[in-house]
Protein backbone atom coordinates (compact mmCIF):
# COMPACT_ATOMS: atom_id res chain seq x y z
CA UNK A 1 0.00 0.00 0.00
CA UNK A 2 1.59 3.28 -1.10
CA UNK A 3 1.78 5.89 1.61
CA UNK A 4 1.08 9.46 0.48
CA UNK A 5 3.20 12.28 1.87
CA UNK A 6 0.57 13.39 4.34
CA UNK A 7 -2.50 11.28 4.82
CA UNK A 8 -5.38 12.31 7.01
CA UNK A 9 -7.51 9.36 6.10
CA UNK A 10 -9.63 11.25 3.57
CA UNK A 11 -7.52 11.35 0.43
CA UNK A 12 -7.41 7.72 -0.61
CA UNK A 13 -5.12 5.42 1.32
CA UNK A 14 -4.25 6.63 4.81
CA UNK A 15 -0.66 7.16 5.78
CA UNK A 16 0.77 4.18 7.63
CA UNK A 17 3.55 4.01 10.22
CA UNK A 18 5.42 1.06 11.66
CA UNK A 19 5.92 0.53 15.41
CA UNK A 20 8.40 -2.01 16.71
CA UNK A 21 7.78 -3.67 20.07
CA UNK A 22 10.48 -4.52 22.62
CA UNK A 23 10.49 -8.11 21.34
CA UNK A 24 10.96 -6.89 17.75
CA UNK A 25 7.49 -7.46 16.38
CA UNK A 26 6.54 -4.91 13.71
CA UNK A 27 3.06 -3.35 13.74
CA UNK A 28 1.82 -1.35 10.79
CA UNK A 29 -0.98 1.07 11.70
CA UNK A 30 -2.55 4.25 10.40
CA UNK A 31 -0.65 7.33 11.48
CA UNK A 32 -3.89 8.80 12.81
CA UNK A 33 -4.29 5.91 15.26
CA UNK A 34 -0.67 5.94 16.44
CA UNK A 35 -0.91 9.71 16.90
CA UNK A 36 -3.28 9.25 19.83
CA UNK A 37 0.02 8.80 21.63
CA UNK A 38 1.43 12.21 22.52
CA UNK A 39 4.86 10.61 22.62
CA UNK A 40 4.60 9.31 19.06
CA UNK A 41 2.73 12.24 17.60
CA UNK A 42 5.78 14.50 17.18
CA UNK A 43 7.87 11.80 15.54
CA UNK A 44 5.04 11.03 13.18
CA UNK A 45 4.46 14.71 12.35
CA UNK A 46 8.15 14.91 11.52
CA UNK A 47 7.60 12.14 9.00
CA UNK A 48 9.10 9.36 11.12
CA UNK A 49 7.93 5.78 11.28
CA UNK A 50 7.20 5.41 7.60
CA UNK A 51 8.65 3.04 5.05
CA UNK A 52 11.16 0.51 6.32
CA UNK A 53 12.28 2.58 9.33
CA UNK A 54 9.69 1.96 12.04
CA UNK A 55 9.63 3.53 15.50
CA UNK A 56 11.17 1.31 18.19
CA UNK A 57 9.27 1.09 21.50
CA UNK A 58 11.74 -0.60 23.84
CA UNK A 59 9.37 -0.39 26.85
CA UNK A 60 6.34 -2.05 25.27
CA UNK A 61 6.14 -5.74 24.47
CA UNK A 62 4.20 -7.07 21.50
CA UNK A 63 1.20 -8.41 23.42
CA UNK A 64 0.70 -5.08 25.17
CA UNK A 65 1.32 -3.06 22.02
CA UNK A 66 -1.22 -5.06 20.09
CA UNK A 67 -3.78 -4.32 22.80
CA UNK A 68 -2.83 -0.62 22.86
CA UNK A 69 -3.24 -0.39 19.10
CA UNK A 70 -6.62 -2.12 19.26
CA UNK A 71 -7.70 0.80 21.47
CA UNK A 72 -6.12 3.46 19.25
CA UNK A 73 -7.64 2.13 16.04
CA UNK A 74 -11.08 2.08 17.60
CA UNK A 75 -10.77 5.58 19.04
CA UNK A 76 -8.91 7.30 16.19
CA UNK A 77 -11.98 8.34 14.15
CA UNK A 78 -13.66 10.02 17.13
CA UNK A 79 -10.40 11.72 18.15
CA UNK A 80 -9.95 13.01 14.58
CA UNK A 81 -13.30 14.77 14.90
CA UNK A 82 -11.82 16.83 17.71
CA UNK A 83 -13.68 15.20 20.57
CA UNK A 84 -16.47 14.43 18.11
CA UNK A 85 -19.09 17.04 18.85
CA UNK A 86 -21.09 15.65 15.96
CA UNK A 87 -20.72 12.02 17.00
CA UNK A 88 -24.06 10.35 17.32
CA UNK A 89 -25.31 8.82 20.53
CA UNK A 90 -24.97 5.46 18.81
CA UNK A 91 -21.27 6.07 18.11
CA UNK A 92 -20.69 7.10 21.69
CA UNK A 93 -22.55 4.11 23.05
CA UNK A 94 -20.52 1.84 20.80
CA UNK A 95 -17.24 3.32 22.08
CA UNK A 96 -18.46 2.90 25.64
CA UNK A 97 -19.34 -0.72 25.01
CA UNK A 98 -15.92 -1.25 23.44
CA UNK A 99 -14.17 0.40 26.41
CA UNK A 100 -16.02 -1.71 28.96
CA UNK A 101 -15.13 -4.88 27.16
CA UNK A 102 -11.60 -3.71 26.47
CA UNK A 103 -10.66 -3.48 30.16
CA UNK A 104 -12.34 -6.76 31.02
CA UNK A 105 -8.91 -8.40 31.07
CA UNK A 106 -6.41 -10.21 33.21
CA UNK A 107 -4.83 -8.03 35.87
CA UNK A 108 -1.27 -8.46 34.60
CA UNK A 109 -2.40 -7.26 31.18
CA UNK A 110 -4.14 -4.32 32.82
CA UNK A 111 -0.96 -3.30 34.62
CA UNK A 112 1.09 -3.59 31.42
CA UNK A 113 -1.49 -1.40 29.70
CA UNK A 114 -1.26 1.19 32.45
CA UNK A 115 2.51 1.39 32.02
CA UNK A 116 2.25 1.53 28.24
CA UNK A 117 -0.49 4.17 28.24
CA UNK A 118 1.62 6.20 30.65
CA UNK A 119 4.83 5.89 28.64
CA UNK A 120 3.09 6.56 25.33
CA UNK A 121 0.92 9.30 26.85
CA UNK A 122 -2.39 8.12 25.47
CA UNK A 123 -4.77 10.21 27.50
CA UNK A 124 -8.02 8.35 26.91
CA UNK A 125 -6.42 4.98 27.58
CA UNK A 126 -4.67 6.24 30.71
CA UNK A 127 -7.97 7.41 32.01
CA UNK A 128 -9.77 4.19 31.07
CA UNK A 129 -7.29 1.84 32.75
CA UNK A 130 -6.90 3.99 35.88
CA UNK A 131 -10.70 4.04 36.20
CA UNK A 132 -10.76 0.26 35.90
CA UNK A 133 -8.33 -0.14 38.82
CA UNK A 134 -10.24 2.47 40.82
CA UNK A 135 -13.44 0.49 40.28
CA UNK A 136 -11.73 -2.72 41.38
CA UNK A 137 -11.08 -1.32 44.87
CA UNK A 138 -14.50 0.25 45.38
CA UNK A 139 -15.99 -0.62 48.78
CA UNK A 140 -12.95 -2.67 49.88
CA UNK A 141 -10.97 -2.42 53.12
CA UNK A 142 -7.28 -1.42 52.97
CA UNK A 143 -6.25 -5.06 53.41
CA UNK A 144 -8.64 -6.22 50.70
CA UNK A 145 -7.29 -3.51 48.41
CA UNK A 146 -3.75 -4.76 48.96
CA UNK A 147 -4.80 -8.29 48.07
CA UNK A 148 -6.89 -7.25 45.09
CA UNK A 149 -4.11 -5.21 43.56
CA UNK A 150 -1.38 -7.75 44.31
CA UNK A 151 0.67 -5.86 46.87
CA UNK A 152 3.13 -8.06 48.71
CA UNK A 153 1.90 -9.11 52.17
CA UNK A 154 2.40 -6.29 54.68
CA UNK A 155 5.18 -6.53 57.24
CA UNK A 156 3.98 -6.60 60.88
CA UNK A 157 4.95 -2.91 61.17
CA UNK A 158 2.94 -2.00 58.08
CA UNK A 159 0.02 -4.01 59.40
CA UNK A 160 0.16 -2.20 62.76
CA UNK A 161 0.34 1.16 61.00
CA UNK A 162 -2.66 0.32 58.85
CA UNK A 163 -4.66 -0.69 61.90
CA UNK A 164 -3.76 2.53 63.69
CA UNK A 165 -4.71 4.65 60.68
CA UNK A 166 -7.97 2.77 60.31
CA UNK A 167 -8.81 3.62 63.92
CA UNK A 168 -7.99 7.26 63.33
CA UNK A 169 -9.65 7.83 59.98
CA UNK A 170 -11.69 4.79 59.20
CA UNK A 171 -14.64 5.47 61.47
CA UNK A 172 -15.89 8.40 59.47
CA UNK A 173 -15.83 6.39 56.28
CA UNK A 174 -17.55 3.11 57.10
CA UNK B 1 0.42 -10.56 16.05
CA UNK B 2 -1.71 -11.51 19.06
CA UNK B 3 0.22 -14.74 19.60
CA UNK B 4 3.06 -14.46 22.09
CA UNK B 5 1.78 -15.54 25.48
CA UNK B 6 5.23 -15.17 26.94
CA UNK B 7 5.70 -11.59 25.99
CA UNK B 8 4.01 -9.88 28.98
CA UNK B 9 6.96 -8.54 30.94
CA UNK B 10 7.39 -9.43 34.65
CA UNK B 11 5.28 -7.73 37.32
CA UNK B 12 4.18 -4.44 35.91
CA UNK B 13 2.11 -4.38 39.13
CA UNK B 14 5.13 -3.32 41.14
CA UNK B 15 5.96 -0.55 38.68
CA UNK B 16 2.41 0.73 38.66
CA UNK B 17 1.70 0.57 42.40
CA UNK B 18 4.99 2.30 43.18
CA UNK B 19 4.69 5.11 40.63
CA UNK B 20 3.37 8.32 42.18
CA UNK B 21 1.86 9.57 38.91
CA UNK B 22 0.03 6.34 38.27
CA UNK B 23 -1.12 5.98 41.87
CA UNK B 24 -2.46 9.53 41.59
CA UNK B 25 -4.30 8.64 38.38
CA UNK B 26 -5.95 5.70 40.12
CA UNK B 27 -6.76 7.46 43.38
CA UNK B 28 -8.29 10.44 41.61
CA UNK B 29 -10.81 8.11 39.97
CA UNK B 30 -12.14 6.18 42.94
CA UNK B 31 -15.89 6.43 43.40
CA UNK B 32 -16.04 8.20 46.76
CA UNK B 33 -14.10 9.83 49.59
CA UNK B 34 -14.71 6.61 51.54
CA UNK B 35 -12.76 4.54 49.04
CA UNK B 36 -10.07 7.22 48.90
CA UNK B 37 -9.54 7.02 52.65
CA UNK B 38 -9.32 3.24 52.59
CA UNK B 39 -6.95 3.27 49.64
CA UNK B 40 -4.81 5.90 51.33
CA UNK B 41 -4.31 3.54 54.26
CA UNK B 42 -2.91 0.81 52.03
CA UNK B 43 0.69 1.97 52.38
CA UNK B 44 2.77 5.05 53.10
CA UNK B 45 3.31 5.93 49.45
CA UNK B 46 -0.41 5.96 48.78
CA UNK B 47 -1.09 7.92 51.94
CA UNK B 48 1.45 10.54 50.89
CA UNK B 49 -0.13 10.74 47.46
CA UNK B 50 -3.64 11.09 48.88
CA UNK B 51 -2.51 13.73 51.37
CA UNK B 52 -1.05 16.02 48.73
CA UNK B 53 -2.80 19.39 48.77
CA UNK B 54 -3.11 19.76 45.01
CA UNK B 55 -4.38 16.20 44.72
CA UNK B 56 -7.03 16.73 47.37
CA UNK B 57 -8.15 19.96 45.71
CA UNK B 58 -8.72 18.15 42.43
CA UNK B 59 -10.39 15.24 44.19
CA UNK B 60 -12.72 17.55 46.05
CA UNK B 61 -13.58 19.33 42.79
CA UNK B 62 -14.44 16.06 41.06
CA UNK B 63 -16.19 14.56 44.12
CA UNK B 64 -17.92 17.56 45.67
CA UNK B 65 -19.72 16.98 48.97
CA UNK B 66 -23.45 17.08 48.34
CA UNK B 67 -26.10 18.80 50.38
CA UNK B 68 -28.28 16.17 52.05
CA UNK B 69 -30.49 18.58 53.94
CA UNK B 70 -30.26 21.06 56.79
CA UNK B 71 -30.99 21.53 60.45
CA UNK B 72 -33.06 24.55 61.46
CA UNK B 73 -32.42 25.82 64.96
CA UNK B 74 -33.97 28.67 66.92
CA UNK B 75 -34.31 29.58 70.55
CA UNK B 76 -38.06 29.03 70.38
CA UNK B 77 -37.81 25.58 68.83
CA UNK B 78 -37.95 22.64 71.24
CA UNK B 79 -35.36 20.82 69.14
CA UNK B 80 -33.58 21.28 65.82
CA UNK B 81 -35.68 20.30 62.87
CA UNK B 82 -34.14 18.38 59.98
CA UNK B 83 -35.30 19.24 56.47
CA UNK B 84 -34.16 16.85 53.72
CA UNK B 85 -32.99 18.13 50.34
CA UNK B 86 -31.79 16.59 47.06
CA UNK B 87 -33.91 13.53 47.64
CA UNK B 88 -32.94 12.24 44.19
CA UNK B 89 -29.51 11.55 45.66
CA UNK B 90 -30.22 7.96 46.65
CA UNK B 91 -26.67 7.37 47.88
CA UNK B 92 -27.43 9.85 50.66
CA UNK B 93 -30.68 8.22 51.75
CA UNK B 94 -29.21 6.69 54.90
CA UNK B 95 -27.67 10.03 55.86
CA UNK B 96 -31.02 11.71 55.46
CA UNK B 97 -32.80 9.07 57.52
CA UNK B 98 -30.26 9.37 60.31
CA UNK B 99 -30.31 13.14 60.38
CA UNK B 100 -34.08 13.13 60.47
CA UNK B 101 -34.34 10.76 63.40
CA UNK B 102 -31.15 11.18 65.35
CA UNK B 103 -32.44 13.58 67.97
CA UNK B 104 -35.58 11.59 68.60
CA UNK B 105 -33.34 8.70 69.52
CA UNK B 106 -31.99 10.74 72.43
CA UNK B 107 -35.01 11.91 74.44
CA UNK B 108 -32.78 12.61 77.46
CA UNK B 109 -31.22 15.48 75.53
CA UNK B 110 -33.01 18.48 76.90
CA UNK B 111 -33.31 21.59 74.69
CA UNK B 112 -30.73 20.46 72.16
CA UNK B 113 -29.14 22.80 69.66
CA UNK B 114 -26.69 22.52 66.76
CA UNK B 115 -23.26 24.08 67.32
CA UNK B 116 -21.59 23.12 64.07
CA UNK B 117 -21.99 20.83 61.09
CA UNK B 118 -19.47 19.76 58.49
CA UNK B 119 -18.32 16.70 56.52
CA UNK B 120 -21.21 14.50 57.54
CA UNK B 121 -20.70 15.31 61.21
CA UNK B 122 -22.94 17.36 63.47
CA UNK B 123 -22.00 18.81 66.85
CA UNK B 124 -25.00 19.12 69.18
CA UNK B 125 -25.26 20.77 72.54
CA UNK B 126 -27.89 19.77 75.08
CA UNK B 127 -28.75 20.10 78.74
CA UNK B 128 -28.02 16.99 80.72
CA UNK B 129 -31.11 16.37 82.82
CA UNK B 130 -33.59 19.00 83.93
CA UNK B 131 -31.10 21.50 85.37
CA UNK B 132 -27.87 19.86 84.37
CA UNK B 133 -24.91 21.51 82.70
CA UNK B 134 -24.70 22.08 78.96
CA UNK B 135 -23.03 19.13 77.33
CA UNK B 136 -21.83 18.36 73.82
CA UNK B 137 -22.53 15.35 71.65
CA UNK B 138 -21.29 14.57 68.19
CA UNK B 139 -22.99 12.62 65.46
CA UNK B 140 -19.89 11.24 63.83
CA UNK B 141 -20.88 8.15 61.96
CA UNK B 142 -23.95 9.47 60.24
CA UNK B 143 -24.67 6.35 58.23
CA UNK B 144 -25.04 4.35 61.44
CA UNK B 145 -26.55 7.18 63.46
CA UNK B 146 -23.83 6.83 66.09
CA UNK B 147 -24.08 9.68 68.55
CA UNK B 148 -21.26 10.11 71.04
CA UNK B 149 -21.77 12.18 74.19
CA UNK B 150 -18.56 14.04 74.79
CA UNK B 151 -16.93 14.09 78.22
CA UNK B 152 -17.72 17.26 80.17
CA UNK B 153 -15.10 19.95 80.12
CA UNK B 154 -13.03 20.32 83.27
CA UNK B 155 -14.60 23.08 85.36
CA UNK B 156 -11.20 24.66 86.00
CA UNK B 157 -11.33 26.14 82.55
CA UNK B 158 -12.93 29.52 82.02
CA UNK B 159 -16.65 29.70 81.71
CA UNK B 160 -17.13 32.25 79.02
CA UNK B 161 -18.56 29.94 76.44
CA UNK B 162 -18.64 31.39 72.98
CA UNK B 163 -18.67 28.52 70.49
CA UNK B 164 -18.10 24.80 70.00
CA UNK B 165 -16.63 23.85 66.65
CA UNK B 166 -15.90 20.75 64.61
CA UNK B 167 -12.26 20.36 63.52
CA UNK B 168 -10.57 20.43 60.12
CA UNK B 169 -9.01 17.01 60.74
CA UNK B 170 -10.42 13.67 61.83
CA UNK B 171 -8.10 13.12 64.77
CA UNK B 172 -9.65 15.91 66.80
CA UNK B 173 -13.17 15.55 68.17
CA UNK B 174 -14.03 19.19 68.74
CA UNK B 175 -12.92 22.62 69.91
CA UNK B 176 -14.49 24.81 72.54
CA UNK B 177 -13.98 28.56 72.37
CA UNK B 178 -14.20 30.86 75.38
CA UNK B 179 -14.04 34.60 74.86
CA UNK B 180 -13.65 37.49 77.24
CA UNK B 181 -13.24 41.13 76.28
CA UNK B 182 -12.95 44.40 78.14
CA UNK B 183 -12.55 47.53 76.06
CA UNK B 184 -9.85 46.93 73.47
CA UNK B 185 -8.53 43.89 75.31
CA UNK B 186 -9.66 40.56 73.93
CA UNK B 187 -8.85 37.20 75.48
CA UNK B 188 -9.64 33.92 73.73
CA UNK B 189 -9.05 30.45 75.08
CA UNK B 190 -9.56 27.43 72.87
CA UNK B 191 -9.76 23.98 74.43
CA UNK B 192 -9.61 20.83 72.38
CA UNK B 193 -10.99 17.33 72.83
CA UNK B 194 -8.68 14.63 71.47
CA UNK B 195 -8.81 10.94 72.28
CA UNK B 196 -11.37 11.63 74.99
CA UNK B 197 -9.26 14.19 76.84
CA UNK B 198 -9.84 17.94 77.03
CA UNK B 199 -6.79 20.18 77.07
CA UNK B 200 -5.98 23.81 76.36
CA UNK B 201 -5.17 24.20 72.68
CA UNK B 202 -4.26 27.87 72.79
CA UNK B 203 -4.69 31.01 74.85
CA UNK B 204 -4.46 34.23 72.94
CA UNK B 205 -4.88 37.85 73.87
CA UNK B 206 -4.33 41.17 72.24
CA UNK B 207 -5.08 44.87 72.59
CA UNK B 208 -6.91 45.70 69.41
CA UNK B 209 -6.92 49.26 68.05
CA UNK B 210 -10.66 49.65 68.64
CA UNK B 211 -12.95 47.74 71.01
CA UNK B 212 -14.88 44.92 69.32
CA UNK B 213 -18.10 46.28 70.83
CA UNK B 214 -19.66 42.86 70.74
CA UNK B 215 -18.56 39.47 69.48
CA UNK B 216 -21.41 37.78 67.68
CA UNK B 217 -22.24 34.23 68.76
CA UNK B 218 -23.41 31.42 66.47
CA UNK B 219 -21.48 32.49 63.37
CA UNK B 220 -17.98 31.69 64.63
CA UNK B 221 -16.04 29.63 62.14
CA UNK B 222 -13.09 27.28 62.17
CA UNK B 223 -11.26 27.05 58.86
CA UNK B 224 -7.70 26.07 57.99
CA UNK B 225 -6.55 26.06 61.63
CA UNK B 226 -7.94 29.51 62.37
CA UNK B 227 -10.99 30.62 64.33
CA UNK B 228 -12.91 33.61 62.96
CA UNK B 229 -15.29 35.71 65.03
CA UNK B 230 -17.55 38.46 63.73
CA UNK B 231 -17.65 41.67 65.78
CA UNK B 232 -19.89 44.70 65.83
CA UNK B 233 -16.83 46.78 64.97
CA UNK B 234 -15.62 46.85 61.36
CA UNK B 235 -13.37 43.83 61.71
CA UNK B 236 -13.29 40.08 62.21
CA UNK B 237 -11.19 38.61 65.00
CA UNK B 238 -8.89 35.81 63.92
CA UNK B 239 -7.11 33.38 66.23
CA UNK B 240 -4.43 31.18 64.72
CA UNK B 241 -4.58 27.94 66.72
CA UNK B 242 -1.02 26.92 65.90
CA UNK B 243 0.67 30.20 66.84
CA UNK B 244 -1.89 31.56 69.36
CA UNK B 245 -1.82 34.85 67.44
CA UNK B 246 -4.93 36.97 67.84
CA UNK B 247 -5.49 39.76 65.37
CA UNK B 248 -8.16 41.83 63.66
CA UNK B 249 -8.95 41.51 59.96
CA UNK B 250 -10.44 44.73 58.65
CA UNK B 251 -13.58 44.28 56.58
CA UNK B 252 -13.85 45.49 52.99
CA UNK B 253 -15.00 49.07 52.62
CA UNK B 254 -18.76 49.43 53.09
CA UNK B 255 -19.13 46.04 54.78
CA UNK B 256 -20.43 46.27 58.33
CA UNK B 257 -22.34 44.19 60.81
CA UNK B 258 -25.84 45.58 61.26
CA UNK B 259 -27.84 42.79 62.84
CA UNK B 260 -27.64 39.03 63.06
CA UNK B 261 -27.31 37.47 59.63
CA UNK B 262 -25.98 40.52 57.82
CA UNK B 263 -22.36 39.40 58.07
CA UNK B 264 -21.60 35.68 57.95
CA UNK B 265 -18.16 34.10 57.52
CA UNK B 266 -17.84 30.99 55.37
CA UNK B 267 -15.20 28.29 55.09
CA UNK B 268 -13.15 28.01 51.92
CA UNK B 269 -10.59 25.44 50.79
CA UNK B 270 -6.92 26.34 50.65
CA UNK B 271 -6.86 28.98 53.37
CA UNK B 272 -9.53 31.10 51.74
CA UNK B 273 -12.01 32.89 53.96
CA UNK B 274 -15.33 34.03 52.50
CA UNK B 275 -17.83 36.44 53.96
CA UNK B 276 -21.45 36.96 53.01
CA UNK B 277 -22.75 40.48 53.46
CA UNK B 278 -26.44 41.33 53.21
CA UNK B 279 -27.50 44.92 52.77
CA UNK B 280 -30.90 45.95 51.43
CA UNK B 281 -31.60 43.83 48.39
CA UNK B 282 -27.94 43.10 47.80
CA UNK B 283 -26.05 39.99 48.82
CA UNK B 284 -22.27 40.29 48.37
CA UNK B 285 -19.67 37.56 48.65
CA UNK B 286 -16.09 38.52 49.43
CA UNK B 287 -13.05 36.36 49.75
CA UNK B 288 -9.56 36.69 51.06
CA UNK B 289 -6.52 34.44 51.25
CA UNK B 290 -5.39 33.80 54.79
CA UNK B 291 -1.85 32.53 54.18
CA UNK B 292 1.18 33.56 52.19
CA UNK B 293 1.52 30.72 49.72
CA UNK B 294 2.77 32.40 46.60
CA UNK B 295 1.79 29.72 44.12
CA UNK B 296 -1.78 31.00 44.15
CA UNK B 297 -3.28 33.81 42.12
CA UNK B 298 -4.69 35.62 45.11
CA UNK B 299 -2.49 37.81 47.25
CA UNK B 300 -2.89 37.19 50.97
CA UNK B 301 -4.49 40.04 52.81
CA UNK B 302 -6.64 41.55 50.08
CA UNK B 303 -10.40 41.25 49.98
CA UNK B 304 -11.78 40.39 46.56
CA UNK B 305 -15.45 40.83 45.67
CA UNK B 306 -16.46 37.51 44.21
CA UNK B 307 -20.14 37.93 43.63
CA UNK B 308 -23.03 40.35 44.02
CA UNK B 309 -26.60 39.13 43.87
CA UNK B 310 -29.83 41.07 43.66
CA UNK B 311 -31.99 38.95 45.89
CA UNK B 312 -35.24 40.26 44.41
CA UNK B 313 -34.12 39.30 40.91
CA UNK B 314 -32.99 35.80 41.82
CA UNK B 315 -35.49 34.86 44.55
CA UNK B 316 -38.33 37.40 44.29
CA UNK B 317 -40.54 35.06 42.27
CA UNK B 318 -40.59 32.56 45.17
CA UNK B 319 -42.03 34.90 47.78
CA UNK B 320 -44.84 37.40 48.09
CA UNK B 321 -44.46 40.81 46.46
CA UNK B 322 -42.86 43.24 48.86
CA UNK B 323 -40.74 40.58 50.51
CA UNK B 324 -37.36 41.71 51.75
CA UNK B 325 -34.09 39.99 52.47
CA UNK B 326 -33.95 39.65 56.26
CA UNK B 327 -30.74 37.75 56.84
CA UNK B 328 -28.30 35.09 55.74
CA UNK B 329 -29.22 32.15 57.96
CA UNK B 330 -26.75 29.59 56.66
CA UNK B 331 -23.91 29.19 54.16
CA UNK B 332 -22.18 26.37 52.26
CA UNK B 333 -18.41 25.88 52.17
CA UNK B 334 -16.61 27.80 49.43
CA UNK B 335 -19.64 30.08 49.17
CA UNK B 336 -21.28 27.47 47.01
CA UNK B 337 -24.72 28.30 48.36
CA UNK B 338 -26.52 30.35 50.97
CA UNK B 339 -29.76 30.03 52.89
CA UNK B 340 -31.55 33.37 52.92
CA UNK B 341 -34.45 34.39 55.09
CA UNK B 342 -36.95 36.45 53.07
CA UNK B 343 -40.48 37.56 53.50
CA UNK B 344 -43.06 40.15 54.41
CA UNK B 345 -45.69 40.33 57.17
CA UNK B 346 -46.32 36.89 58.61
CA UNK B 347 -44.81 35.03 55.69
CA UNK B 348 -41.12 34.46 56.07
CA UNK B 349 -39.31 31.71 54.21
CA UNK B 350 -35.88 30.21 53.96
CA UNK B 351 -34.65 30.27 50.38
CA UNK B 352 -31.79 28.10 49.18
CA UNK B 353 -29.68 30.00 46.64
CA UNK B 354 -26.93 28.25 44.68
CA UNK B 355 -24.48 31.02 43.81
CA UNK B 356 -22.93 29.39 40.74
CA UNK B 357 -26.17 28.66 38.90
CA UNK B 358 -28.40 31.26 40.62
CA UNK B 359 -30.85 28.43 41.17
CA UNK B 360 -33.20 29.38 44.00
CA UNK B 361 -35.62 27.18 45.90
CA UNK B 362 -38.05 27.79 48.75
CA UNK B 363 -37.12 25.19 51.35
CA UNK B 364 -38.71 26.18 54.67
CA UNK B 365 -41.53 28.29 56.07
CA UNK B 366 -41.04 30.00 59.39
CA UNK B 367 -43.52 29.69 62.20
CA UNK B 368 -45.32 33.07 61.97
CA UNK B 369 -45.95 33.19 65.72
CA UNK B 370 -42.48 34.25 66.69
CA UNK B 371 -39.73 36.37 65.30
CA UNK B 372 -36.70 34.90 67.04
CA UNK B 373 -33.48 34.38 65.19
CA UNK B 374 -33.29 31.14 63.25
CA UNK B 375 -30.22 29.47 61.84
CA UNK B 376 -29.68 26.82 59.22
CA UNK B 377 -26.86 24.27 59.42
CA UNK B 378 -26.25 22.51 56.10
CA UNK B 379 -25.71 18.76 56.35
CA UNK B 380 -23.36 17.47 53.66
CA UNK B 381 -22.08 14.10 52.53
CA UNK B 382 -18.62 13.27 53.79
CA UNK B 383 -15.70 14.84 51.94
CA UNK B 384 -12.11 13.59 51.86
CA UNK B 385 -10.25 14.13 55.14
CA UNK B 386 -7.17 16.15 55.91
CA UNK B 387 -4.56 13.54 56.82
CA UNK B 388 -2.17 14.48 59.58
CA UNK B 389 1.08 13.60 57.92
CA UNK B 390 3.51 14.76 60.58
CA UNK B 391 2.99 11.59 62.55
CA UNK B 392 4.09 9.26 59.79
Question: Keyphrases for this structure?
Answer:
heterodimer; A: 174 residues; mainly alpha; Potassium Channel Kv1.1, Chain A; 2 domains; 3-stranded mixed beta sheet; 8 helices; disordered N terminus; B: 392 residues; mainly beta; Neuraminidase; 4-stranded antiparallel beta sheet; 23 strands; globular
Question: Mind explaining what this structure looks like?
Answer:
Chain B: Residues 114-387 form the F-box protein AT5G49610-like beta-propeller domain. Chain B: InterPro entries: AT5G49610-like_b-prop (IPR056594), F-box-like_dom_sf (IPR036047), F-box_dom (IPR001810). Chain B: It comes from Eleusine coracana subsp. coracana. The complex is a heterodimer of chains A (174) and B (392). Chain A is mainly alpha-helical and 174 residues long. In chain A, strands 2-1-3 form a 3-stranded mixed beta sheet. In chain A, 55% of the residues lie in helices and 7% in strands. Chain A has 2 domains: 16-81 and 88-138, Potassium Channel Kv1.1, Chain A (2-Layer Sandwich); 139-174, no CATH class. In chain A, strand 1 and strand 2 form a beta hairpin. With 392 residues, chain B is mostly beta strands. Chain B folds into 2 domains: 12-59, no CATH class; 64-391, Neuraminidase (6 Propeller), CATH 2.120.10. Chain B is built from 7 helices and 23 strands. In chain B, helix 3 packs across helix 4 (44-51). The longest helix of chain B is centred in the first third of the chain and has 10 residues, at 53-62. Chain B is globular. Chain B starts with 11 loop residues before the first helix and ends in a 12-residue tail after the last strand. The model of chain B is unreliable at 1-10 (pLDDT under 50). At the A-B interface, helix 3, helix 5, helix 6, helix 7 and helix 8 of A face helix 1, helix 2 and helix 3 of B.
Amino acid sequence: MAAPESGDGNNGAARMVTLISSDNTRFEVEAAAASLSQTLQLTILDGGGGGGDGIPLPNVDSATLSKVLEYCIKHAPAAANGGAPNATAVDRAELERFDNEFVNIDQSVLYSLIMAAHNLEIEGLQSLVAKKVADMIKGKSPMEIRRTLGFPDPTPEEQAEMNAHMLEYGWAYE
Amino acid sequence: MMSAETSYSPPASIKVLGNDDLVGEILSRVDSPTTLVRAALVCRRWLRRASDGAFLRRFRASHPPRLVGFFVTGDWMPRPEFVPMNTDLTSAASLRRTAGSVLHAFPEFSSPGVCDSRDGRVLFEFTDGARGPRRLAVLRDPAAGAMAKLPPRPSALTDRYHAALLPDDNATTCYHVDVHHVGRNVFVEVTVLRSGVWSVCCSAKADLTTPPGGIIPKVTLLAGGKVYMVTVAAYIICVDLATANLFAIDLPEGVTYEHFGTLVPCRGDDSVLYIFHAKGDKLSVWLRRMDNDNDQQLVAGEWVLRDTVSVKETCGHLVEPGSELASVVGVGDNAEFAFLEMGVGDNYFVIYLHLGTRKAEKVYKRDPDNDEIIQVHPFMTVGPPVFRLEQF
